[in-house]
Specification:
Layout (H helix, E strand, L loop, with lengths): L6 E10 L2 E11 L4 E5 L6 H8 L7 E6 L2 E2 L4 H6 L1 E4 L11 H11 L5 H10 L15 H13 L5 E4 L8 H18 L2 E6 L2 H7 L2 E6 L2 E7 L1 E2 L2 E2 L2 E7 L2 H7 L5 E3 L2 E5 L2 H13 L4 E8 L2 H9 L6
Parallel strand pairs: 3-8, 3-9, 6-7, 7-8
Antiparallel strand pairs: 1-2, 1-4, 4-5, 9-10, 11-12, 13-15, 13-16, 14-15
Helix pairs in contact: 3-5, 4-5
The structure holds adenosine-5'-triphosphate and magnesium ion.
The site of adenosine-5'-triphosphate has 11 residues, from helix 1.
């Protein structure tokens, strides 16, 4: 089934004082997923996000959101977006609920039922009638997300949403973003400099470094990590390698094959049927970090 991308970046660059902060980004983001934008400090994540939401002009290229050009049809494009980029404006002396009511008045068609839905989705029901000044950072963020999704945007953009959250808070964020994605079909775009978080949170991750896109990879495929590798200890490693169609690699007498659980099981059957003894199969997650390090020649992202 062909799906139109929610975000299409074509040759997007940002140039300030003849320096490229972001260079030639071309990227399609398909709907209904949590999409990660991963890169070290200064890579150009915030700059890209600011261009997406119209806080900064696009120097070269264009970004389309749900088919609308940010450059030429800004109003139509931004209508499809909910975002927290800078600190969201909240009235500290009002309650969370009063803040949402206030924002709802500015968006046509947002009903009280919708406000309630948004509050429940971010898990703020218990504390919504407290004053915002008494909220923790995590609660403020939930309120910010509730506000950003009131008008049911197709795209939710969050710049480094895990910053400052404790592990429990990060987990809850992950859960409600997933819920938003599944229940409302919202595409979520999150940036981070932390690989481990991106792996847990996202379906697809794009890696940006020095303003350039260096990789886009799918984190999950068929419900398993796409990058899982299986180590086979066998009686005849060369024959096993041949039976595996030459895939993978042999290291110190062990055959390493990338693939899914089912593919590993199928290879096991094939080996046994061909007289190769299988002494052991181990799954090893080849993480995005390994891939990242391989891509950048060992320069760590953290
Ligand atoms: N308005 C500006 N004028 C000049 N340079 C800028 C401006 N905004 C950002 N930069 C530079 O652009 C580069 C990318 O910055 P950006 O904030 O997009 O990175 P980032 O990936 O969001 O980093 P971080 O993880 O630290 O938030 C940096 O070198 C930064 O100093
Ligand atoms: Mg940033």
């Amino acid at each position: 089934m062909h799906q139109d991308p929610v975000v299409r970046m074509q040759g997007v660059s940002k140039v300030i004082s003849s320096r490229y902060l972001v260079r030639d980004l071309t990227l399609d983001i398909l709907p209904g997923q949590v999409f990660g934008f991963l890169g070290p400090n200064g890579a150009g994540k915030t700059t890209t996000i600011r261009m997406m939401v119209g806080l900064m002009s696009i120097s070269e290229g264009d970004i389309h959101i749900a088919g609308h050009s940010v450059k030429h049809e800004f109003e139509d494009a931004i209508r499809e977006v909910g975002a927290i980029v800078e600190n969201p404006e909240m009235y500290k002396f009002l309650t969370g609920y009063q803040n949402l009511l206030h924002f709802a008045r500015m968006s046509p068609g947002v009903t009280k039922e919708r406000i309630q839905e948004a509050i429940e989705l971010v898990g703020l029901t218990q504390r919504i009638h407290d004053k915002v000044k008494n909220y923790s950072l995590g609660m403020r963020q939930r309120l910010g997300v509730a506000q950003a999704i009131l008008h049911r945007p197709k795209l939710l953009v969050l710049d480094e949403p895990t910053n400052g959250l404790d592990p429990q808070g990060i987990r809850e964020l992950r859960d409600y973003l997933r819920k938003l994605c599944e229940e409302e079909g919202t595409t979520v775009f999150v940036s981070s400099h932390l690989l481990s978080e991106m792996e847990l949170m996202c379906d697809t991750v794009a890696v940006i470094q020095n303003g350039k896109l260096i990789d886009v990879s799918s984190v999950r495929a068929e419900g398993t990590l796409a990058t899982t590798e299986y180590a086979f200890e066998v009686s005849d490693v060369d024959m096993a390698h041949t039976l595996a169609g030459g895939e993978g690699r042999v290291e110190q007498g062990v055959l390493y094959i990338p693939g899914t659980r089912d593919e590993a099981a199928a290879l096991n059957v094939l080996l046994v049927q061909n007289g190769v003894k299988v002494y052991g199969i181990r799954a090893r997650k080849s993480s995005l970090e390994d891939q990242f390090l391989a891509l950048t020649g060992g320069e760590s992202i953290e």
